Amino acid sequence: MNDFAITESDIYEKSLPNGSIYGKIGEQGIKRFVDTAKHICLNAESILDVGCGNGDWLYFICQRLSIKKHLGIDVSKSRINNANKFFPELNVKACSITELELLEKSFDVVTCLEVLEHVPDWIQLFNLLFRFASKQVLITVSYREKIKYTECIHCGKLTPMYGHLRSYSEESFPQVLGWSLSFAKIREKDPNINRLRRIYHFFRPHYPWLLVNYRRVC
Fold first, then answer.
1. Do the strands 133-142 and 107-113 form a parallel or antiparallel pair, or are they unpaired?
2. pLDDT tens digits, residue range 135-155?
């Protein structure tokens, strides 16, 4: 197994190919990947990443674990082009999950990180995640976010910042028959925050992301 349990961003980036997009996600993003990876089932050998974007998470987890089969999909062709450019060894495809012609339970794990808050019909996508997972569905979303709006420069109407259409809490996610459900919260670990804010977060922890963990019940 490749050891990618790295906490120092400078060491981590040196372990990657020249020109990698990893240098752009920052130390906070790297730590978020590390925290998320702790919840992947240990015997996972295959993974489908829905909404893979530029491929950062998929590359990270394939290197960290002994993944024998993987696939990343995203509706954005430009992001898939970026993934092909920066991580040519990845198997990625520009498509929607509704276009996948795969057998059910084709992958041990299906991940969907910071995607649902961008999707108008998130329930449909949520339900489809379970079609292709044999062991685990792992989701991360913004946690109890107060959605901010700004005026669109094109139409003049109010539009949500960052494309976040909603925020989530534990109550947002239903029990799914045949699957156990658990939650974890991912803390903000920005090394650039000042000391006063760091002390404030110590006594009143700030959790920007909610990790939603479904595991198939045998």
1. parallel
2. 999 999 999 988 887 887 777
Domains of the chain in sequence order: 9-216 (3.40.50.150)
Q: Count of residues for the chain? A: 218
Distance CA 76, CA 96 (A): 9
Q: What are 149's strand-pairing partners?
A: 160
For the residues of 135-177, what is the DSSP string, one character each? Answer: EEEEEEEEBS----EEE-TTT-SEEEGGG----B-GGGS---T
pTM over 0.85: no
Let me know: does 146 contact 168? Beta carbons within 8 Å. no
Q: Taking Cα atoms as reference points, which of 27, 22, 31, 28 lies closest to residue 53? A: 22
How far, CA to CA in Å, does 176 sit from each of 150, 172, 202? 36, 13, 34
Q: Which residues of 150-174 are buried (b: 16+ CB within 10 A; e: fewer)?
A: eeeeeeeeeeeeeebebebeeebbe
Q: Pairing state of beta strands 149-151 and 133-142?
A: unpaired
Please give the Cα distance from 67 to 174 (Å, whole number). 29
What share of the chain in percent tops pLDDT 90?
63
Confidence bin at 178 (pLDDT 50/70/90): very high
pLDDT (tens digit, 9 = 90+) per residue, 20-56? 444 456 677 788 999 999 999 989 999 999 999 999 9
